[in-house]
Amino acid sequence: MGVEAEHDVDHGPEADMPRMRADARRNEDAVLEAAKAVFATSGVDAPAREISARAGVGVGTLYRRFPSRADLVIAVFKREVDACTAEAAALAAGHPPGEALALWLRRFTRFIAAKRGLAQALHSGDPAFQTLPDYFRQNFEPALVRLLDSAVEAGAVRPGIEPYELLRAIGNLSAIKGAEPEGETPVMVELLIDGLRFGADKGGAQAGAT
Q1: CA quadruple 135, 141, 147, 150: dihedral positive or negative?
Q2: Are 201 and 157 in a shared domain?
Q3: Please, which of 34, 59, 91, 157 could form a disulfide with 100 given CB 3.0 to 4.6 Å?
């Protein structure tokens, strides 16, 4: 999975092209996974060699895939957004609506916690990052709308919840100073989830009593 495998195309047979494209994809995935971990612990200014070493590729491979640090930060961010968004559909397919919503909100909370390593770059004012907040909202809001609509229809949560406000609420809870993934933030998110259920439970109890 070295640099040669990715670029040695002049003397290889045409049949090797799919293998080399697969190698290039593995290299890119390894770099993005390594960058996510390094950014979370060392910040977005961590040395490129630290990222490439963790990924098991050469520094040259990293720079060929991502010529600037902004390119790498954006790619890491979008990859995590895409993964979290895709999980909403998977959870909806495999769980009852109310449970799927709760599971995804917890998953979104973990996404926010993992994004802390990128926060410095995302709020740096660099024009390269200006489109990221829109990418965030354009992916997460529709995913949450579908989960909420299904949960409301099933009577699992109260109606009238604004999806973007719910996303912002979790983001604000996750920004609490000193909150950690295994500590204060998840506790507050669980209270928030309980609050979403409260109106639906009350309505169901009244309907059953009549």
Answers
A1: negative
A2: yes
A3: 91
